[in-house]
Amino acid sequence: MHSPSSTTRRLLGAATTLALGCATALHLPHHPSRPLEAAAPPAPAVPPVVAAETVIKVSPLPRASRSRRPSGAMPVGNIRGWRQVLAQDFTSGRLPAGWGIYSGAPGGNPHGWWSRSHVAVRGKDLHLVGDWQRGTFVTGGLMATDVATTYGKYEVRFKVSRAQGVAYALLLWPKSGAWPSGGEIDFAEDGGGGRRSATATLHYGSANTMLQKQVRADFTQFQTVGVEWTPGKLVYTLNGKPWAVVISNKVPSGPMRLAMQLEAGHGTPWSPAPTKATPRTVDMVVDWVVGYRRA
Fold first, then answer.
1. CA proximity to 110, closest of 142, 131, 135, 129
2. 54 or 213, greater pLDDT
3. I need a surface site. Which of 57, 72, 84, 282 has the fewest CB within 10 A?
């Protein structure tokens, strides 16, 4: 999350209440104030973004073509070097067991609220919905509580509607709940707006230092984002192709879980709070998710 989940997941700030099935208190991060789409965004006030040791661009930032479902089938089974431990395409008509839904006030974010009713399976997709309720922008988020890996490979095929003031994040969160000391890996997040780019952020250290990279694509159309997490290294992927690499001794080395969330903006330049201009309804649609541990 940038400011943790780029801005949200980052719910952390204060203590955010996550109803993970039963109701576990989790702190989710806040995101840094960093506008994603500015031509030359100012450096975030806090925490600092460190670039020296780490981020290596392995190829030009790709402009993804509009991805359509037929070309984005969910991978099933083990692949070389990885054993599949999570594969969910949400076709059963209801949320499968093993997912914990957020509930309550996001920590450190006075502008939003989590509600279990805003996470739903409709048709053959998972929907995280945001809308106005009595002056508060209410959204949904959830975590794969039954799967935790130390190192792994994760992919999520999703799209999200345009909305100033509404952020999203796809991330790996420490199983221990210790944040920021346990680290955080946001492999796609956005503070709100036209959805023409996404940021990947590694959070680490007691000061929540961040290492960030940005990729351009149309995220109002289905795209598959992912991360390969190995000792001291992160490879961020878009539609199966690497777009950036982080090599650092700050890469987390403890067990983490996959989380997905839609959230009201935090009221920072990077993630503005919802306003009257924010759409009445915002929808983040997840087609499928897969996860692997090292074989």
1. 135
2. 213
3. 57
Q: Say how far apart CA 3 and CA 44 lie, in whole Å.
A: 9
Percentages (nearest 5) of helix, strand, coil residues in the chain = 0, 45, 50
Query: Is the whole-model pTM more than 0.85?
Result: no
In sequence order, what DSSP letters do the residues of 65-86 get, joined into one string?
PPB-GGG-PPP-S-BTTEEEEE
How far apart are alpha carbons 203 and 186 in whole angstroms? 8
Query: Mean per-residue pLDDT for 78-83?
Result: 96
Extents of the domains making up the chain: 16-31+47-294
The CATH number given to 16-31+47-294 is 2.60.120.200
Question: pLDDT for 148-197, tens place per residue?
Answer: 999 999 999 999 999 999 999 999 999 999 999 999 999 999 999 999 99
Over residues 96-107, the pLDDT tens digits come to: 999 999 999 988
Residue type, 63: R
Query: Sign (positive/negative) of CA torsion 72, 162, 186, 216?
Result: positive
